[in-house]
Amino acid sequence: MDSLPFETVFLMSWVGAGLRGLLLAFLFGAIAWSLANRRVRHVAALTWKTAFRLRFIWVMILLLVVIVGGLPAVLRDDGSAKGMAQIILTYTLSMTTGILGFATLWLAVGSMARDIGDCQMQMVATKPIARWQIWLGKWLGIMGLNLMLLGIAGSVVYGMMEYRASKMDEAQYAMLQDRSDEEIISLAVRSWQQGELRIEQIVQVDVEKKEILSDDQGRYIPRPVEELKRLLASLPRKKLREQVLVSRAPLELEDVLVLYGTNNLGVPYRDWRKSNREDEEEKAAQHVLKLMQQNTIAQQQGERITALPPEMRQKIKKDIQLQYSMLSQMVVPKTGRRLVFRRPRGSFNEDRGLVLRFQLEDSRMTFKSDRKYRMSLYYSRDGKEQGPPPQTRLYSARTHIEEPLIAVARMITEGGVTNSISIFGTNDLMYVDLFNDETPQEGQEYMGVIRLPFVDDRTGDLNPRGIEVMYYEGGFLKNYMRALAIVFAWLGVLAALGLAAASFMSFSMAVFACTGILLISFCTGIMKDVVADDTVMQTWTDGQRDASIMDFFAVNSFRLMVSVISPVKDYSPIEDLTDGRAITWGQLARAYSYIWGLSGLLIFAGGTLIFTRRQLAIIDSDE
Amino acid sequence: MVETQTHEETRDAGLDANGEVVVRVSNLVKVFRDFWGRPKARAVNDVSFEVRAGEVFGLLGPNGSGKSTTIKMMLGLLNPTKGFIDMFGHGPRDVKTKERIGYLPEESYLYKYLNSVETLDFFGGLFALDPKEKKIRTAQLLDMVGLTATQMRTVGEFSKGMQRRIGLAQALINDPDLVILDEPTSGLDPVGCREIKDLILNLKARGKTVILSSHLLADVEDVCDRAVIYYGGKVQQYGTLEELLTERDTIRFTLPALSEDAQQEVMETIGKHVAKDKVRVENPTQNLESFFLGVVENAIAKDEHTSGSTAGNEVAEFLRADAPVPTQADKMLERLADNEAAKPVASKKSEPKPGQPVVDTAKLDALSGEDPKKQPAPEVSRRDKKPNALDEADDKLSGLFGDD
Lengths: 623, 404
Prior knowledge:
The complex is a heterodimer of chains A (623) and B (404).
Chain A: H1 6-36, H2 38-53, H3 56-74, H4 81-117, H5 120-125, H6 131-176, H7 181-193, H8 199-202, E1 205-206, E2 211-212, H9 225-243, E3 246-250, E4 252-259, E5 265-268, H10 269-293, H11 296-300, H12 310-329, E6 330-331, E7 336-342, E8 354-358, E9 361-362, E10 372-380, E11 391-396, E12 401-405, E13 408-412, E14 418-422, E15 429-436, E16 450-451, E17 468-475, H13 476-502, H14 507-522, H15 524-533, E18 540-541, E19 544-545, H16 551-569, H17 573-578, H18 585-613
Antiparallel strand pairs in A: 1-2, 3-17, 4-5, 4-7, 6-16, 7-15, 8-12, 8-17, 9-16, 10-11, 10-15, 13-14, 18-19
Chain B: H1 7-17, E1 21-33, E2 39-52, E3 56-60, H2 67-74, E4 82-87, H3 95-98, E5 101-104, H4 116-126, H5 131-144, H6 160-172, E6 178-182, H7 190-205, E7 209-214, H8 217-223, E8 226-231, E9 234-240, H9 241-245, H10 260-271, H11 288-301, H12 326-336, H13 362-367, H14 378-384, H15 389-401
Parallel strand pairs in B: 3-7, 3-8, 5-6, 6-7
Antiparallel strand pairs in B: 1-2, 1-4, 8-9
């Protein structure tokens, strides 16, 4: 993609999106039409009846209730409310998805293979219903069952989360009862230091004078311990609501600039990367060429190398790209990175504020988990002085850090008019500066370099999930429903896969084949490596990767599989949900367009074609 | 059929009414192959025949002779290797064609976990029948096949005979123009066999076409107008039963019992023309089927209880020849308007036998001016009588409206 002009890439992405949209519209149109068709509805209803009569549905409900209700009871979290919620959501939803996925596959294969094997399909196929309608009717029936089961499991999980959240204050308060007054005050002060509480919440304040009250010895007077206990007990729930049980969408990261001082800016990352990389690529290529020309063997053979082979040039490019990606993320002491974010396209609730979410890494290979790294944070509407004062903080490495940011400042003028100043300037941009405030001791190994991972190391592009500023997009329930909707889309593909396999295979063979396909789809990492290496060989000779006669077939087929599976696999909603990250309507539409519009439709077309051509009166011997 | 007829259907219906060919099988070949594509068996080998509207057509042959394979190709369940099948002017897989076909397979291929009502509701649903109409037909069909009392039992609990009965009911749920019955009497008790045969005759009386596949010769002989006889995948014989069965060099007299003197006198007269060892004199015996049906009829008269299917039930009203179904009458009127000279006879009747269900063909008999009690054996009647086409039409029309 790097070699294509921007206009071409832009056009291709829009054409692709348009095609996927058309496919999706066609698919939903077909589903709507099918639901209105009496014959298709009868086949769907029979699938329901089968599931109930063969006790499949009761077993599934029991299994789901045991998993969803029982699993959280045996799981151990890190003790925090956020950890508890993440464990519940991750495990229960993953297990629910896994069980439903497998059950869907089983039911789809069983429903079709059994009907064909037991010859009931011959009775149905001789009635005035097209074969593809039978296929679609079965799919709709299975998806109806999935909707019900997912609804039950989803409701139980949601109800459990809400129940636990509502009981959290009491549980925390009970735990604080054993603590001494000093410990409670100490905890309150620590919470203030971490930005969880405001100063006026923990000490007594003269509201009129706007002063903190002190005792005779000049010490601040804390608020009553009982009040502090209640306040501290409410913090985990507050954190849970703000960080997990919420839907927060990220702002678009426009660019990243290098900061050499407060206002001393380097070249924007995109330009910097391009210009430097191209220079270095050329330099490196010339250097390698020179080395090759000096190669004695080549001279002996009388061969004069005048240009680098294309594959070698490609490899140099890749190496340079990787080096620049790594280099750009290394923030040496007294320098920083300025991240430019764009305001959301639609309206959003500015009063709910913004959250900066990131994690940093020690540049060394090893690090101590208890070490803190000093950084200062400044954000503004113009990159200069229009923003809250800078804050200096100590952060842990490799943990998700969340910093609340103010999105709008409201001031009441003397005339009583409220003025609002948004953190987004007239160009709809906001600037976030992260500055490395570490001070390395001279002569020590540690140089104080911090890594801020804002680049996708694989592509070298800006990683939209590296450093994020997120805004409040909506409540948890809305996000949760959209996450379940993506799980539902996945189940739809599995149902189609099962039906397609059973359209031409016996039950046992179809289950085997589907399981194989699922396993392969989980192994895209290996396939990606083969595609990146351009060979299946893992051995080297004379510094060169060995090649195999299988490469042509394997690399190309893996490339095709990766290109089909990867975009679909990218839509995993559970991780986003547990991070409190919004699954937007746009994402949902894109997920459906990929999962259903592309892979689902392909499987549907293939499956119905095979089923339509199949001679139903010929039964496989193992049926 | 509750749906409004399209232009195409009306045209097709007109063709049927003229006694046109509704099924045409030409040079049909089916070769089963193994995994590598090598031929395993030639199940059907260059078979050709035609089935005309309103006739009962028999596919006769021993097991494995290719009857069922032919039927499955006609239903689109198998693809012909070579040859051509035309069903109502369309291919076998055409959805419009299937709307006019009812099929009873050789085995019970029903959903074992559904009960009788659900089974009929499901298959009726595939014909997009109006729910109200579907309910009425379901009740009538269950009554006809004697499963009303067991309608809430699942098909899996049924005996083979009961499964055949519910299978038959589903084949008739759409009031089909063409009924394909593959070994319909297999697994049925003699009462059931008789009922099936009567039903076939009743369908025929309503102008329906029936294709009957069987290796039971008596079944075919009782009801079929024409038949093909298969052996080794090939058609060995093809024609009307009269053509196939008549022994031209032999005749039989059936008389009331004569005194010994009278017998002697007749024998002497015959002896002048035929050698004595060529003449056979005997008392006709009642066949076992007739005897058995008589026993069952007596039991029913004594109100004996049974937990299985009941016998002696009426043909479903929507299937009866005298059913006051306006849509069918309209359809028939339309057909008659096309001068159906070759239309099969509507007034042909089955032989009244003990245990026979109350098929009300009396009206038709009365209209045709024939006394059913005086009527000779039905086989002779059906084959010999060539009634005037207009009389037939009148009979049928009157029957449909229920006029006496």
